[in-house]
Design goal:
The strands form two sheets. Strands 1, 2, 3, 4 and 5 form a five-stranded mixed β-sheet that branches. The chain has helices spanning 49-62, 74-91; strands at residues 2-4, 8-12, 15-24, 27-36, 66-68, 104-107, 110-113. The chain is an alpha+beta fold. It is built from two helices and seven strands. It starts with a strand and ends with a strand. It has one domain (2-113).
C-alpha cells in the first residue's frame, strides 16, 4: 500500500511549497512541488490529485493500492479510471496486475485499485 499523508504548505525561499509524506514499503519520504508564489492560487491545496499523479506509475508497476488522507476530485478519478489507466495498460505490459477494466474507487478520503 502507498499512503499519502496530510497535505501541508509553506513559503520556502520565496516560493510556494506543497508537500505530503508518502509511505511505501515501510519507508516514509516527502513528495513535494515547489513553484513561484504568483502561481499559488492555481494549486488545489486541499486535494491530493497532484500527488496521486506523481505516485500512479510506481503504484501500477508495484501493484500497490494508493490511500490518501486528503480528498481526491471526482473529475480526476474519472479521468484516471476512464482515460489514463486504460491507455497506459494498452501500451505497457508492465501493468499486467491491473487490466484495462481496472477502476480506482474513492471511499471517503482514500482510493483503492480494485
Amino acid at each position: 500500500m502507498i499512503t499519502l499523508g496530510s497535505i501541508f504548505t509553506k513559503n520556502l525561499n520565496g516560493n510556494f511549497h506543497i508537500e505530503v509524506p508518502v509511505t511505501m514499503n515501510g519507508e516514509t519520504r516527502p513528495c513535494w512541488y515547489e513553484l513561484p508564489n504568483e502561481y499559488q492560487n492555481m494549486v488545489a491545496e486541499d486535494r491530493c490529485d497532484a500527488f496521486i499523479a506523481a505516485m500512479l506509475l510506481p503504484a501500477l508497476y508495484s501493484g500497490e493500492d494508493i490511500t490518501c488522507e486528503a480528498p481526491v476530485s471526482a473529475r480526476f478519478l474519472y479521468n484516471l479510471n476512464n482515460e489514463l489507466i486504460p491507455t497506459l495498460n494498452a501500451f505497457s505490459r508492465a501493468f499486467t496486475k491491473y487490466p484495462s477494466s481496472q477502476t480506482i474507487l474513492q471511499n471517503k478520503h482514500s482510493m483503492a485499485m480494485v
